[in-house]
Amino acid sequence: MRRWTWRYAPAGVFLLGVVALWQAAVEVFDIQPYLLPGPGRVWTAFLEVRGVLPGHIRTTMTEAVLGLAWACVAGAMTAALLAGFAPLRRAVYPLLVISQNIPMIVMAPLIVVWFGFGIMPKVLVVALIGFFPIVVSTTDGLLRAEGDLVELARSYGAGRLQVLRTILIPSAVPAFFAGLQISATYAVLGAVIAEWVGASSGLGLFITRSQTAFRADRVFVAVVVIAAVSILLFAMVHLAARLAMPWQYAQHTQAGALTETPTRSNASSRKDVR
Amino acid sequence: MTATDARPARAPEAPPGPPGDATPEAILVRGVSLTYGGETPVHALADVDLTVQQGQFASLVGPSGCGKSTLLRVLAGLAPPEAGPGVEVRVDGQDARERPGLAAFKPQRDLLLPWRRTLGNAALGAELSGIPRAQAREQARTLLGRFGLEGFERAWPAQLSGGMRQRLALLRTFLAPRRVLLLDEPFGALDALTRRDMQEWLQEVWTEDQRTALLVTHDVEEALMLSDVVFVMSHRPGRILARIEVDLPRPRGLETTASAEFGALKAEVLRTLAAGRSPGSTQP
Lengths: 274, 284
Ligand SMILES: Nc1ncnc2c1ncn2[C@@H]1O[C@H](COP(=O)(O)OP(=O)(O)O)[C@@H](O)[C@H]1O
Ligand SMILES: [Mg+2]
Description:
- The complex is a heterodimer.
- Chain A is mostly helical.
- Helices cover 78% and strands 0% of the residues of chain A.
- The longest helix of chain A has 38 residues, at 160-197.
- Classes of the chains: A mainly alpha, B alpha/beta.
- Chains A and B meet through helix 7, helix 8 and helix 12 of A and helix 2 and helix 4 of B.
């Protein structure tokens, strides 16, 4: 706990400094609040909109999480197909890479036009943005599974599906989470952009409304909230990764260095779950 | 099977023997050659003949790079030998060419799955052979003590020492319900003292088990300590230079290595190895 605090202390101090400088600049140069509100004013705006924010946050977060979930499912399944069938991979993979140059911010209005103003088009935008990093990373992970491990499984008579289940999928889990972490970074932003086009609730809508009312202070509130929500989502993904890959986080105590003849007492477990 | 089984290391539910006229050879290799393709083809095996009888412990010694691992991979059904008349690769009476799964194979590296704990890794071979997961793990649990892994059932491979990793890889191999074991340098990476302990231990485990074993090693004393028969391989491309019977009484220990017979056998193996090193002598 103490180490954790120390690690982030410098960043915290720096952030406080920036905020103080910002407040000072606004006051010294007498900048108009509709151009750049000071932190104090943003705080006041936050207190004003405190009541409506949770609803917007819930909407945006729902879109982001659902979109990510779909990206995970579709991404993992596509990766399995691409890794399993080389001809398909050669046909689809280049297109997949090119598709990354389609600017989502331009596509979002179209998607909303196609699918209406409900939550669905937003989820779709998040899923589309999140899909690519997961597919690429997971495919890579599946293809990079150690050949010797695959051979080991085959030497016990394992078939294709057994090799996939016991060797390939577990080897690709770290790569999958690496991709998911990138996707999660863009998920909230994707939802907000989709909401700009048209929504009845959400942080994107809140920003549009604040802008048309020239309430820069409220836009800043939204910016801070979006950052916070993004960090929350990122932390959730990180936690999921930890739970899914306990071996990566286990303490690397060289047990055998201490005990070639193991002691019975400490580690004997009641039941092996995995 | 219970924890108090008198012969704990026996593979539970070994498959029934070959049908009808049982061939006594558990391992039969005839005329096997293999060349690795690629930019510079590597001629790894040249006309290898070798047989191991049921229940025997055999060793394969040879200089490194001579094709020992390649031969085991052929027997494990992972590397197809060159086709030809009279070429035979049989494990437990069945053609093993491109048919993995007939023998329990321990590759040169321990190849533990980093995402499985000790029990899960131990049970892998049994699981892949169709034994239900829970049952496979229960069998693994009963043998943990015998393999010096008691108390570490929930450890990840990265938390185990080199010796423990090797024992775990051996446990995984022994737990696969096969009657033939192929062991590729199981103690290669260990220090001399641990190695000696592990050899004595393997001797005990194998004696309780009585399965056919083919052990690859470049350590002549290790081969003589453990084996009923030692095959000496030439420099690459690997051929069998000699088949040497080891008739020393078991269990063998430190006194065995000090005996005159042991010394004579060791000299014989070393002489054969040396003869195989000069290029001219690789021709029959
Ligand atoms: N997959 C492979 N492709 C090409 N050459 C290989 C391959 N595996 C092994 N070799 C070569 O074949 C020879 C025999 O290798 P190996 O059977 O591993 O020898 P040993 O186990 O006796 O040390 C070596 O020269 C090695 O470099
Ligand atoms: Mg080798």
